[in-house]
Amino acid sequence: MDTIFALASGKGRAGVAVIRVSGPLAFEAVQALADRLPVPRQAQLSKLQGTAGLIDTGLVLCFPGPGSFTGEDVAEFQVHGSPAVVATILAELGGRQGFRAAEAGEFTRRALENGRLDLTEVEALGDLIEAETEAQRRAAVAQMAGGLRSLAEGWRVKLIRAAALIEATIDFADEDVPVDVTPEVLSLIDSVLPELRHEVSGFGVSERLRDGFEVAIVGRPNAGKSTLLNALAGREAAITSTVAGTTRDVIEVRMDLDGLPVTVLDTAGLRDAGDEVERIGVARGVERARAADLRVFLLDETRAVPLLMPGTDDIVVQGKGDLAAVEGPSVSGVTGEGLSWLVSEIGQKLERRMTGAAQINRTRHLLAVTRAIGAMESARDEVCAGSDRAEHAAEALRQALRALDGLIGRVDVENLLDEIFASFCIGK
Question: How big is the CA angle at 307 (ends 301 and 311), to the nearest 5 degrees?
Fold first, then answer.
């Protein structure tokens, strides 16, 4: 296997740059550039020498396999973050026999292939790198710690036990089996099925946490929706005007609200428009608002919201609170009045939805768990049908186990790997 190398820190000028090397010749590179190997897992200050002389002075670390991130011998050069220094070291490594530049995600892919990570942990690592908010960071860290893997392993242990009991009745079909295994098999299946169904039911919330919630601001024309969006975003994201019907299309702004990833939608003012273009904008606004996770109804002086009725969990608030003196909550995008309250209210409502979040958060996870549920339901039916259906029950349990193995990356994932690792940066 080639020894690979890459810049693991960000490109451009920086105080420190980290260059990672992994493979059978990693320590040979250290000896060539730094003269001697440091004690494993202890940083060593070294003068790095290249073919043209001194390159830089930096820290060198060595992590012998299989106890490294990739499971191979790994070395890291922590040098000054000058583009010239980085380019020179990369050129020195690239000029050595058996070395090549790493591809996107190749370090993590080797960690997967060498059993240092399972597929759910690889995906979680990608989520952590992409995390924009505190809630996303916490979810990714929990997944990296093996949250989904632990669940799947627990399910597998029970299903393996159930399958073994069924197989025993097949192997000893011509003999008297002293114990009826049906009650224990059904008990094992019935203990796993509710947990799998919970994962399916909570998938929508966990997927939203990973990809972001949608909150739509809706109301009549000139209710202050665009001004409110600009105040939440902290910039002029939408055109504001006293002319009704200024917003013709849905404007999206992604932001961090109380640690949650949220895309706020500014929709066209809800009214029976005479202008064909405005009618299209209103229709799109209504469609997106209905599909959103939460709606903020911004009332004007009429206190009316046509075309769309608030749901029980939606937020209804008076707009232009700096101008309107009304009872109840109000908000102003101009003065900031009520803005903190609104952000807190949105955060609390979305946090409550997250209480039912599942561990699975990708369509691949959902499909694997759904297949496992279907196979287990078939297995249960076959067990209840009697001993004559034991072979069918055993096969159904094997299918369920195969689905769970696919969930954590033991089988049937080769065609997914290129897509997964394509989103990783080169140095990871």
Answer: 85
For the chain, the domains span 3-113, 134-202+360-409, 216-354
Instruction: State both tokens at 222.
Output: 């000139």
Q: Are 155 and 194 in contact (CB under 8 A)?
A: no
Question: Could you tell me the CATH superfamily of domain 134-202+360-409?
Answer: tRNA modification GTPase MnmE domain 2 (1.20.120.430)
Secondary structure (3-state) at 236 = coil
φ, ψ dihedrals at 21, nearest 5°: -130, 135
Output helix, strand, coil percentages for the chain, rounded to the nearest 5: 45, 20, 35
Radius of gyration of the chain (CA): 29
What's domain 3-113's superfamily in CATH? Probable tRNA modification gtpase trme; domain 1 (3.30.1360.120)
For the chain, 428 residues long, give each residue's pLDDT as a single digit of tens.
Answer: 799 999 998 888 889 999 999 999 999 999 999 988 999 999 999 999 988 899 999 999 999 999 999 999 999 999 999 999 999 999 999 999 999 999 988 999 999 889 898 888 888 888 888 888 888 898 889 888 888 889 999 999 999 889 888 887 776 555 555 567 889 999 999 999 999 999 999 998 888 888 889 998 888 877 778 888 888 877 555 444 444 444 446 788 888 887 888 888 887 766 655 666 667 777 777 888 888 888 988 887 777 766 677 888 888 888 877 776 677 788 887 888 888 888 888 888 888 888 778 888 888 899 999 999 999 999 999 999 887 888 899 999 999 999 998 888 765 545 445 655 665 666 66
One-letter amino acid at 299 equals L
Straight-line distance from the first to the last Cα atom of the chain, in angstroms, rounded to the nearest whole number: 18
Assigned CATH class of 216-354: alpha beta
Q: What is the spatial order of strands in the sheet that 44-50 belongs to?
A: 44-50, 53-63, 74-81, 14-22, 3-7, 99-101
Query: Tell me, what DSSP letter sits at residue 65?
Result: T
Residue in this structure with the two tokens 């952000």, named with its chain if needed: 343
Give the closest residue to 63 by CA, choosing from 103, 129, 100, 18. 18
Predicted structure pTM score: 0.73
Among candidate residues 205, 231, 235, the one with its CA nearest the CA of residue 217: 231
Angle between helices 119-130 and 106-113 (to 10 degrees): 160
